Every structure is written in C-alpha cells, then in structure tokens.
Amino acid sequence: MVNSEAETPRARYRAQVRTEIKQRAWEQIASAGASALSLNAIAKQMGMSGPALYRYFGGRDELITELVRDAYRSLADTFRAAAEGGADVTALAHALRGWALRDPQRYFLIYGTPVPGYQAPDDTTAISSEIMATLLDACAALPLDGPATPFDAHLEDHRNWADGHPAPPAALHRALTFWTRLHGVLSLELAGHFTGMGIDPAQLFAAELDDLTGTPAS
Amino acid sequence: MVNSEAETPRARYRAQVRTEIKQRAWEQIASAGASALSLNAIAKQMGMSGPALYRYFGGRDELITELVRDAYRSLADTFRAAAEGGADVTALAHALRGWALRDPQRYFLIYGTPVPGYQAPDDTTAISSEIMATLLDACAALPLDGPATPFDAHLEDHRNWADGHPAPPAALHRALTFWTRLHGVLSLELAGHFTGMGIDPAQLFAAELDDLTGTPAS
DNA sequence: TAACTTCAGTGATAGCCTCTAACTATGGTG
DNA sequence: CACCATAGTTAGAGGCTATCACTGAAGTTA
Prior knowledge:
Largest sheet of chain A: none
Shape of chain A: globular
Number of helices of chain A: 9
CATH class of the largest domain in chain A: Mainly Alpha
CATH superfamily of the largest domain in chain A: Tetracycline Repressor, domain 2
Oligomer: homodimer
Helix content of chain A: 55-70%
Number of domains of chain A: 2
Largest interface: A-B, 57 and 57 residues
Radius of gyration of chain A: 21 Å
Number of strands of chain A: 0
Structural class of chain A: mainly alpha
Distance between the termini of chain A: 68 Å
CATH topology of the largest domain in chain A: Tetracycline Repressor, domain 2
C-alpha cells in the first residue's frame, strides 16, 4: 500500500468508470430531465448489470448530488474564466446565459424546482458564494447612481452572505437584482414560456441587462 | 338516459371521487413535489386498490395535467378577484406572492422546471393569456415615464401574445418585466436560495416592486 | 511462486411504481 | 324483473431502487 502520488491502475480505472457514469447521467438529464435519471438504464448502456453501479455511487441521490456539485463548479469556473478575461457585468451576464443555454437541464439542476426534502451539500454553498464573489467584484466596479433605498439599509445589516466583500450596500443590492432579474428572464426562457408568445428572449434579456447597467435607451 | 340538467347520482359520485383524488394528489405534491406523486399511494389512502384510479384518470400524466390546469385556473381567479377589487399592480404583485407562498409546489407546477417531453394542454395557454390580460390592464393604468427602448420597438412588432389588448408597447414591456422580475425573486425565494443568506425575501420583493412602479426610494 | 486480500461485477430477491387485462359485483334503467 | 353500464377487484408484465451473498480476477505480501 504505497499509495500517495502515483495512483494505482485500480484507482485510475475506478475514476474512469465514475466519469463515464456521470457522462451518461448528464446525457439522460439533458434529454429527459433529472427526474428521469435511471441507474438501471445507465448500467445497461454501459453493458453491466444494475447493482454494479452501487460500487461507484451510494445510490441515485448521491449521483445526483455529485452532478449538482459539478454543475455549480462548472458555472463558477465559467464565471471566473470570464472575470479573469476582464469581463464586466454585461459580459458576465452573457456568459451566464450562454452557459444556461448550453444545457438547460443543468441550469435547472441548480436553480430549478427544489425537491422538498433534499438539502444541497455544504460545499455547494461555498461554490455558490464564489460565484457571488465574482459577481460582486463586477458590480463594485460599476458606477453607482441613485439614492439609497430602504432595502440598501436592510443589506447593511445583513451582508454576511457577501462573505466579507468590501462592496458598499448599493453594490450588494445591484448584485442581488442582477441575479434575480436575469434568473427571472432566463428561467422562463429555458422553460419555454416565451416560445408561444413570439417574443425574442435574447432581446428581453438584453433589455433587462441594459436597465440593470443603466445603459441609456438608445 | 335523461342526462342533461339534473346530473345522475352516478355522475355525482364520480365527480366526488375525482375531486378527492385530486385533493390527495395536491397533498402529496405539497409535501414531496410533483415527481413523488404516486397513484398507488393515493389509492391506498382512499382504501382502494391501485388500478381503480384508472377509472377516473387515464394515468399519472393525465392527473398531473389536470392539476396544472387547476393551478393555472386558481392563479387566474386570484388575479381576477384582486383586479375586480380594484387592485393596482402593487396589490396584484402581493396577490401573486401570497398565492405562491400558500403552496410553493403549486407555483412550481406552473413556472418550475419543465419536463423536456411534456407539452401543456392548449387551454392552459388560454388561461395564461387571461392572467396576462389582467396584468396588462393594471400596467396600462400606470403612468408611463421614460423614453422608448429598442425592446419596445420589438414589442410593437410582436404583440400577438397580448391578444388584442390596446396597451401601448411601453405597457407591454412593463407587464413583461413585472412577470420576469417578480418570478425571479419569487422562484429563488420558494426554492430556498435566500434562506442561508440571511436576507429577508419580502423586503427584496418589495424593493423590486418599488423599482418597477417607480416609487421614489423613501 | 504461493497464499492471501481486496474489490469489480453477478444473479437473486424484496419492495416500490405504472399500467393492462380479465373478472366480479352492484346500482340505475327500461 | 331483467339488463347493462360501470366501479372495483385480482393477477401480472415490466420498470425502477436497493440489498445481499457470491464469483472471479487483480493486486499484495510472504
């Protein structure tokens, strides 16, 4: 049992199978939603019998939890990459929309209908606040106009979620509305609520974004 | 077979059982989400064996479709009642939030994660546009400030979803942002994304509403 | 090299679920 | 009273999650 450093072939094989399982799971989720995810079907696709998967994941819930984790990680990485490329809030918003459109069900896995009993693992909240941090950075770089609102005062007293970020309350408020408004448009778009209406979701998204950044309506 | 007018006792019994089934279904959905709805469990609760329910509903999907219809109907009625009581957009917004908080899973049944294959029945779009119509009425009554945006121009050309409502494009825009922004805050609140943050969702909702109605930040 | 240990994968099984099919029983109708 | 539509039953096919005991192969150690 030398372990440490040079990973054994066993471990490598194990990791490979795990990632293949997750990949198949993502395909199933993308095509039929998370509720239709079937361990049995995945096993059959991989040419092995159902119970074999329990060597790799404790069960269906544990697999889904892992996928949720990966989804959060993916979004956080997308945001960080954009921010390191010098993205402002507008670019961040488009990065978000692109990420969501690339796999709607992945977006819904994070921000969609919650299962009443289910509790997301602790580390996802850490990733979530990492996402919030890059958003806060971008919002703090924005010129802040307008008078302070009552909600800004509320945020002054409840800024623990910002995890020590030095942004002023108005910036926190800006970040929150960014999140909620873009999620509002995006989730309705992904759910197909605009398709029957003839509206172009991209333009509505852009309009909300313009309003958010204070872009003069040209 | 006299039928017509005086409903037969058979039909009355049938209707009663149907509503009891739906009621139990709502209880299940409220406590464990729509994905956990089980015809078998409902039948067992009602003291009869599983397949008996197929006399009343074609299957699980048909039952859920009926519940979706009822949810739309309930929201439309709530809106209409508020509007007939002279509610402005602010009151309408609070009616929406109250309705959503009363049964979050019912809200998600309409506005939550969509099942990729599933298509809502035609009549729900009719109810949906009824909801939109009362929202448009309220928005048209609002004073419209601000210059016309590019998105307003887009709406000028794509106003078929307004179903002939005479409101100007700016009012249509207002109604849309009402919908998307309130949904943004509300869905994140119902999904519990604010609980770990210490933020009061009601105040965030109110802040968004103030911004929407142009209420001066006092 | 031989003995031992670890672990991937198997089939059997229990207990859910949806949904179909054939059958029984009952209550309204002519 | 005879008839028939219909509510409800059991049996069963086929799907799912999950546990268990077992096999066999691959690594490890003496």
